[in-house]
Amino acid sequence: MKNFCLHDWTDFDRTGKRHCRKSGCNFVSHKDAIVTETPIDYLAPDWVNYEKVHCWRNHINDRIKGMWNTFTADQKAAIAISARELANAEEWS
Ligand SMILES: [Zn+2]
To answer: What are the structural domain ranges in the chain?
Structure first.
């Protein structure tokens, strides 16, 4: 079974799992999976303005920003999720 997909997922069901909404994709999250949502702005990110905290765009370096329009939507989503995981791990005190 796949342990990840890039589609939209349902909310948690009664057993604490999430399911992929896309027909044909049978992804179901593990009960304790930490789910990182795809940032909504991944297709055309604003590289000028940033959120104060936990901003995924802060974790994209300039070289990748310069190449952004050459990536497919799936590649953009994968990179954005990876950056968001880093952003979510930021510790603010
Ligand atoms: Zn899926």
So the answer is: 1-35, 37-93
